[in-house]
Amino acid sequence: MASLLASSSRAARDDQCTSGPEEGEEEEDDDVFVSSAGEPLSAVAVWLRPRPLLDRLRRAEPPDYRIDEFGFRVEEEDGPEQSSSKLLSTPFAESPKHRCGAVPSGLVWLQWIAHLEFTHNSETAPMSWENMAPVLPRTDKLRAMVRGGVPHSLRPQIWLRMSGALRKKLQADMSYAEIVKVSSCDSLMCNRQIEKDLLRTLPSNVCFSSLSSPGVPRLRHVLRALAWLYPDIGYCQGMGMIVANLLLFMDEEEAFWLTATVIEDLLPASYYSSTLLGIQADQRVLSALIATYLPDLSALLEQHDIELSLITLNWFLTVFASVLHVRILLRVWDLFFYHGSLVVFQVALGMLRMKEEELCKLDNSADIFNALSDLPGTIDDVEKLLEVSFHVSSSLTEVVVESHRRRHLAFLMNDQGTLMASPSRVANLPKQQVNRPQQVDPCERPVDETERVRTAAAGAVLVDAACLCSAVQLEPRPAGALFEPGDWRREAERAAPRQEVVRRLTLTSSLPPPAAHERRYVEELRPAGGAAPLPGPDRRHRARVTRYSRGRARHETSVVYVLGLNLSTWCCVPAGRLVGSLRSNPDFPLLSRRAWASISAALVKYGETRRRAQGR
Amino acid sequence: MSYAYLFKYIIIGDTGVGKSCLLLQFTDKRFQPVHDLTIGVEFGARMITIDGKQVKLQIWDTAGQEAFRSITRSYYRGAAGALLVYDITRRDTFNHLTTWLEDARQHSNSNMVIMLIGNKSDLESRRDVKREEGEAFAREHGLIFMETSAKTAANVEEAFINTAKEIYEKIQEGVFDINNEANGIKLGPQHSPAAAGGMAAGGLGGSQGGGCC
């Protein structure tokens, strides 16, 4: 047992030391700083520590500002928050003493190692990260341990294995190195914007504060790679915040795959896309949840007409990275990488609950606004936060969130469809003389427009479906369920006259077919300004085209799925009859056979769920 | 601290034009060369004096990246003034003004006072947009115009204060209904009970009197 522990401990550390690209010689530094846990930068990956600064610290000539374990400059005026005993009582990174259990919190570390050994199923292979399964089995035991916090030195490896990021990395068509390569010579995309934001992401952290800081090139690589991988997203401010915080603890390849997992799996679709539809829907979900779980606060917000999403958008977009103290953040992320986006709601509700009484004492909207936006910075007790979070939202489940989400997504798409469908409404402006940019900036891909049209069309379909239900005289469903009977009818009335419906359906049919999409992708890859056609599609290109069309199909299906579900929620009819009525209506000739199949399937599935629920 | 009026401002414009720096210079009188990215919205407030009256400016600083514009609609709601900012060293930020203006006009009340600001006037050597172009744009769209530098603080006070003066004049002329908070104007605590309660029915004339005495 003892030897296993020693070897695993070494494995864990070796792994952390050697997985950084420009590594090797700094290993000795590791000992210096790990042994003095609590020192500046001691909780940051060794390869990210700025060398000149290390030299100064070693020569005992510290700079005139204080640096915390995570490399953040501590301004003395931050006093109350920083000196809080809760926040600073224990050093964050474990020292070797912890690892042999000599101090109480070291026991946690041992417990984790024991758990990992227990789940490590190979008798013969020595236990090392490489030999360990890429996904940790989800057990009650693991969940309980995650709730207590992952030991800091194990975080990178545990996060990768809890979230599925490691599996994603192993299953990917392309390696990170390949993606970095293609995304760096890709002069298109958002690389210019990324460049501008590199120093604005974590300006107060010495690992990211100047162009020569070790974090900056890594941040650049990861953001470019993500923008390349997700053409529908490109680069969205806020993503950088997550990436930079990850880079403090793990190498860039790991940070890349973990962020990809956040985008693809942990958060719902369209959190970072040009429409931000997913995150907007979640803001509405939050507002609905507040009404349920925090009625006093909800009343206060309503009374003062406060749009909470202005403040919380930031929390959700960065998964709290931009607002919580990093010590608190890491504990929240332990849970986030295990449970996904549910945790974001739980913690948001928990934070609001902790300050609910204080907020309700305020009597003017400006003060409330300020208190709300300062709120996360005042959180200094993570145990209390988690306790309150789980307590206040004890009945909140993934299913509840998901059903709210679908509903609000439908409304949002609806709104956007309405907006899009009447561009003439914005015309009350003096005639414009300023020319729009004549040349399309290669950094600003025209993809946004398509995406917008597509979303608008999806929203329009939804409205039209509501109209259509009214046209084919389907009964509204009885009261008491997700939708009130009047809801869909109101939506239908908002959707305007009949010719408008037909017009919007035409809009739907103007969605670019996948082939055009792929063609455009090839266009995009053409060297800027050059007429030379590309060499025949190689593996990488093929992989990307596949990804592109797969993404498109996914998008289409989700739109149709939302449509189908809402139709069935709105109307109290069996799936078969609904689809039949819609299909036979001449206004709906444009949806493809596949789309109908999906609607049909969604309806059947929904019907089953509902029957089950009713049976219970 | 008590005030006679509270005005809500918003600052809009492309990412990186210096919106947050302008706000910081105005509220804290300092310049931070590298400012954190603004995601969502940040707030600032400062008290100024106009015509002998204390006016509190509540300023909302917004994210500039294109994607966020789809969600900025709610920023505009209830704003009395807007600073529309571009960067004189980057023409694209000037070219995007029309779309910003469209957004602002579409989502705000029609009386909102808009101040056009060409920021970074300290970088004269890298100038890409002529002062005259800014003036012409402002004239054409009925905006007030100013070139500022958040770095040297040149014209920053003036930009915020002139906007407030314009709003104040509109109140005096009775253009703004100050009892309707959707206009981005609130009477201060010591004024509001009488004004809001007793004179609401009297309309503009009455509430204006409330503000003056």
Automatic annotation (TrEMBL), chain A:
GO molecular function, one term: small GTPase binding
Database matches in InterPro entries: Rab-GAP-TBC_dom, Rab-GAP_TBC_sf, Rab_GAP_TBC_domain
Amino acid composition bias (Acidic residues), ranges on this chain: 22-32
Protein name, UniProt field: Small G protein signaling modulator 3
PANTHER family attached to this UniProt entry: RAB GTPASE-ACTIVATING PROTEIN 1-LIKE, RUN AND TBC1 DOMAIN-CONTAINING PROTEIN 3
Regions of compositional bias (Low complexity) in chain numbering: 1-10
Pfam families documented for this protein: RabGAP-TBC
SMART domains noted in UniProt: TBC
Gene from which this protein is expressed: sgsm3_2
Rab-GAP TBC domain mapped to chain residues: 149-340
Region feature (Disordered): 1-35, 528-548
Lineage: Eukaryota, Metazoa, Ecdysozoa, Arthropoda, Crustacea
Sequence ranges of Basic residues compositional bias: 539-548
PROSITE patterns the record matches: TBC_RABGAP
TrEMBL record, chain B:
GO terms classed as biological process: protein transport; vesicle-mediated transport
Annotated Gene Ontology cellular component terms: Golgi apparatus
SMART domains: RAB, RAN, RAS, RHO
Keyword Nucleotide-binding attributed: yes
Keyword match GTP-binding: yes
Family according to the record: Belongs to the small GTPase superfamily. Rab family.
Designated name of the protein: Ras-related protein Rab-2
Species in which this protein is naturally found: Amphibalanus amphitrite (Striped barnacle)
Organism ancestry: Eukaryota, Metazoa, Ecdysozoa, Arthropoda, Crustacea
Gene name of the encoded protein: RAB2
